[in-house]
Every structure is written in C-alpha cells, then in structure tokens.
C-alpha cells in the first residue's frame, strides 16, 4: 500500500502512468470500445467493474494534462443520426475542472473513426466496464 494513491489505480496502471512521457496518450474506454483490437500495438489494461469517471478522477490526481496543446482531453464524437445522449460528459467536465485550470476548454471532440485511429497509437488503453455510450476519453500527458 502507498499513501495518497487512489486505491482504484492498480499497480499495472500506476506503472504505465509513470512510464508515459510528455505527449503520450492514454485512452479510458467504455465497455463497448474494441480495446483489444485497437490496442494490438499498445498496452491494454483491464479495469472491468470500474467506470470511466472514477478512473478519470483518480488518474488526473497523478497525471498532468499537456499544456502545449489546446485540447489535451478528447471525447469520441456522437455519430450523425445516432440518437445517443452523453450526460456523462458533464461529469467529465466537472472532473477535469477539478484537476486542470482550463476546465471544459481543455476538452475536444474527435470523429468516431478518427478516434479509433488515434487510439491505435496511444501508449495504453484502459478497458473499463462503463455502460454509458460514447464514454471514451483520451488524455494527453503533460510535463510535471
């Protein structure tokens, strides 16, 4: 056990966050995201049974967001014609505002298939059990 480390962060995830360098990206994926097929060239960390908001909050206690880009947080854009609600995004805005002075302005959206392509080049993908749709979030690491 370590002091001041959120207990939701597994040893494997802590090691991965520590290994990441400036501008490396990590995806926190919802339960529908094809983590294993997108993560063939990166680390895939299983966090089944956990939701994205809890992991996002815990990760941002340790991981600084990149200040050299306008939008270090990326969400998967809802597909045109898809009748999906994204109330979880409001929770993300609250969490990001808690950890980064830019708040919601640090968040951008990426078209679904472009998000998949970006995810393939991420340092790691965390596969969660999140049930909300369009709940995927990609973080770009900054400098400590």
UniProtKB/TrEMBL annotation:
According to UniProt, the reaction catalysed is:
beta-D-ribopyranose = beta-D-ribofuranose; alpha-L-fucose = beta-L-fucose
Q: Which keywords does this chain's UniProt record carry?
A: Isomerase
List this protein's GO terms for biological process: fucose metabolic process
GO MF terms here are: D-ribose pyranase activity; fucose binding; L-fucose mutarotase activity
- EC number(s) stated in the UniProt entry for this protein: 5.1.3.-
Record-given protein name: L-fucose mutarotase
Source organism (scientific name): Ruminococcus albus 8
Q: Which gene name does the record give?
A: fucU
């Amino acid at each position: 056990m370590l002091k001041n480390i959120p207990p939701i962060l597994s040893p494997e995830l802590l090691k991965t966050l520590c290994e990441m360098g400036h501008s490396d990206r990590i995806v926190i994926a919802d339960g529908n995201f094809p983590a294993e097929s997108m993560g063939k060239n990166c680390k895939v960390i299983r966090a089944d049974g956990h939701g994205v908001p809890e992991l996002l909050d815990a990760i941002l206690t340790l991981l600084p967001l990149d200040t050299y880009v306008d939008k270090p947080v990326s969400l998967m854009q809802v597909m045109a014609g898809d009748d999906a609600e994204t109330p979880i995004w409001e929770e993300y805005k609250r969490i990001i505002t808690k950890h980064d002075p830019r708040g919601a302005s640090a968040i951008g959206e990426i078209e679904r298939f472009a998000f998949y392509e970006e995810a393939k080049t991420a340092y790691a993908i965390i596969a969660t059990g999140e049930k909300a749709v369009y709940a995927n979030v990609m973080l770009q690491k900054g400098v400590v």
